[in-house]
């Protein structure tokens, strides 16, 4: 049985999907991009670091809505539009995890992302 996870503290979906789905004790999140949840508008900030911070804060809100934290995350997928931004994205990402218990992860450069953002992140977490 699945439970839909929804919070106003993260952006509303921009298509036919939910912010996350909890199946048993496993949470599958949709990808988060730099949309400000209070305005619903894209907010890329002044740098890739600021954009990544908003993405991670949106993901934090989704995890909290499922009564989880970044400590529950077992797998992360990062999609970026330019591999040259990897170091800056990684620097922000690292602030949200303890390196000793960080999740498995892949980082993939893609041609385009929704709304032509620079980074999108999705996660799998377990209670």
TrEMBL record:
The keyword Hydrolase applies. GO terms for molecular function: hydrolase activity. Coiled coil: none annotated. The keyword Hydrolase applies. Keywords: Hydrolase. It comes from the Bacteria. SUPFAM superfamilies: YjgF-like. PANTHER family: 2-IMINOBUTANOATE/2-IMINOPROPANOATE DEAMINASE RIDA, PROTEIN HMF1-RELATED. This is Rid family detoxifying hydrolase. It comes from Asprobacillus argus.
């Amino acid at each position: 049985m699945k439970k839909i996870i929804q919070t106003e503290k993260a952006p509303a979906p921009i298509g036919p999907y939910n912010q996350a789905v909890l199946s048993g004790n496993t949470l599958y999140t949709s990808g988060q991009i730099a949309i400000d949840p209070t305005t619903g508008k894209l907010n890329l900030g002044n740098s890739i670091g600021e954009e990544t911070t908003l993405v991670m804060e949106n993901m934090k809100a989704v995890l909290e809505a499922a009564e989880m934290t970044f400590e529950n995350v077992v797998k992360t997928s990062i999609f970026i539009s330019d591999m040259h931004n990897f170091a800056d994205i990684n620097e922000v990402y690292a602030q949200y995890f303890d390196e000793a218990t960080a999740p498995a992860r892949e980082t993939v450069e893609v041609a385009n992302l929704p709304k032509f953002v620079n980074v999108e992140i999705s996660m799998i977490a377990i209670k």
